[in-house]
């Protein structure tokens, strides 16, 4: 099992969460909530209002999200879903655990003494330069005050 940190449309209550609980795609077990140790710019961009974490460490905010334990099948699905490696790149990032529900079994990665663990995160290094000038968010909600409603894939 691998740890994945999601910060956008795959979180609970967001439009693509349905994929995280679709066991035909693989297994994803909610472990808890966290935020990035480093600051990153989280922007809503493109004609479909997609959330992107730009891989520019030290800029932006500590981005909030959810930590999942996923099997290889789900990880492969997420790679395809996120357009990895072209649109997003899956990299290991340090995530601070804010609230933990996971049960640590043998062989499972645990947070260190500071409550930090490494998780795979889908961020991007392949973005138009003007995205750096967009507003930065610390948390994503497709129904948020930003007024930038996410366009579902089936509606594109």
TrEMBL record:
UniProt domain Gamma-glutamylcyclotransferase AIG2-like: residue ranges: 4-105
A cellular component annotation (GO) from this entry: cytosol
Catalytic site positions: 82 (proton acceptor)
GO biological process, one term: modified amino acid catabolic process
EC number, UniProt record: 4.3.2.8
Superkingdom of source: Eukaryota
Keyword Transferase found: yes
Pfam families: GGACT
Keywords: Lyase, Transferase
MF-aspect GO terms: gamma-glutamylaminecyclotransferase activity; transferase activity
Known catalytic reactions: epsilon-(gamma-L-glutamyl)-L-lysine = 5-oxo-L-proline + L-lysine
InterPro entries: AIG2-like_dom (IPR009288), GGACT (IPR039126), GGCT-like (IPR013024), GGCT-like_sf (IPR036568)
Protein function: Catalyzes the formation of 5-oxo-L-proline from L-gamma-glutamyl-L-epsilon-lysine.
The family this protein is said to belong to: Belongs to the gamma-glutamylcyclotransferase family.
PANTHER family (alphabetical): GAMMA-GLUTAMYLAMINECYCLOTRANSFERASE, TROPONIN C-AKIN-1 PROTEIN
Name this polypeptide is given: Gamma-glutamylaminecyclotransferase
Phylogenetic placement of the source organism: Eukaryota, Metazoa, Chordata, Craniata, Vertebrata
